[in-house]
Amino acid sequence: MFLERDVSHHKNGGTIEVIAGSMFSGKTEELIRRLRRAKFARQKVEIFKPVVDTRYSLEEVVSHDENSIPSTPVENSANILLLAGNVDVVAIDEAQFFDKGLVDVCQKLADMGIRVIVAGLDMDFKGKPFGPMPELMAIANYVSKVHAICVGCGSVAQFSHRLVSNEKQVLLGEKSEYEPLCRVCYNQVKNQ
Ligand SMILES: Nc1ncnc2c1ncn2[C@@H]1O[C@H](COP(=O)(O)OP(=O)(O)O)[C@@H](O)[C@H]1O
Ligand SMILES: Cc1cn([C@H]2C[C@H](O)[C@@H](COP(=O)(O)O)O2)c(=O)[nH]c1=O
Ligand SMILES: [Zn+2]
């Protein structure tokens, strides 16, 4: 389990943490867990998500188990810099839907001494890197890769298999549109 920064960090130093994985892997729950702990530590927290993510709620980050935390929906990454004034922690959910400018935004926030926590899908339904996630993982201080359980065989899943016929990279959805699969089960359904 991820534990907060240790004493070796510079007291004014910002950090970038990335939580990456497939759908249903617990990214949002882990993000909410870290934010609740930051609030216990009396840290000022701001949470952002892309406006395109209208799946459960317009103004909340919501997990598949319906845990939720208030958030600000933003059109693009530049708006995060404008809105993140005087905070200790900036959190960003569904980071895969943001533009590539999110990488610079996170660097700037960390340079300002802010703890930045980013959660998102590392791969799309084709198994290809998704949006700014690969670069964010490269520049992060800490990367946590989380996993779902494969609905095919019960082992650890890292792929989000799309169950409906649609080739667009962005297609909001839930259990009727996607299922988490391990590499073996994913390759099996792809080769059918
Ligand atoms: N196949 C699965 N593997 C793991 N968790 C699942 C699965 N299907 C449903 N869940 C539920 O999804 C929750 C994780 O939801 P969430 O944090 O929103 O994930 P993510 O943000 O990664 O999509 C789990 O705690 C579990 O209750
Ligand atoms: C794989 C994949 C997913 N999406 C969408 C589907 C959901 O609305 C979100 C992921 O949400 P989660 O919190 O990680 O469960 O992304 C997509 O648009 N394209 C894809 O390839
Ligand atoms: Zn499997």
Structure write-up:
The chain has helices spanning 27-40, 77-83, 102-111, 133-139, 183-190, and strands spanning 15-21, 45-50, 60-62, 68-70, 72-74, 89-92, 115-121, 142-146, 148-149, 156-157, 159-162, 178-181. It is of the alpha/beta class and 192 residues long. It has a single domain, classed as P-loop containing nucleotide triphosphate hydrolases (Rossmann fold, 3-Layer(aba) Sandwich). The protein has a six-stranded parallel sheet, sandwiched between helices. It is globular. The site of the ligand Cc1cn([C@H]2C[C@H](O)[C@@H](COP(=O)(O)O)O2)c(=O)[nH]c1=O has 14 residues, from helix 1.
Strand order of the largest sheet: 5-2-6-7-1-8
Please write the string of helix (H) and strand (E) elements.
Answer: EHEEEEHEHEHEEEEEH
User: What structural class should be given to the helix and strand makeup?
Assistant: alpha/beta
Which ligands accompany this protein? Answer: adenosine-5'-diphosphate, the ligand Cc1cn([C@H]2C[C@H](O)[C@@H](COP(=O)(O)O)O2)c(=O)[nH]c1=O, zinc ion
CATH topology: Rossmann fold
What is the count of helical runs?
5
The biggest beta sheet reads:
6 strands, parallel
The low-confidence runs, each spanning 5 or more residues with pLDDT under 50, are: none
